[in-house]
Amino acid sequence: MDEIRQKIEQLLLGVKETQAALQNTELAVENLRGLLDQKIDELDNKLSKHRHEFTDESSYLRLVDTVTLKVIDDATSLSTGDGQTTFVIPVELDGKRLVRVGAHVFTVSSSGTPEVQIHNATKSLDMLSTTLTIDVSEKDSSTASVSAVIDNTKNQVNEGDEIRIDVDTAGTSTAGLEVRLSFR
Question: Which pTM was predicted?
Answer without folding.
Answer: 0.67
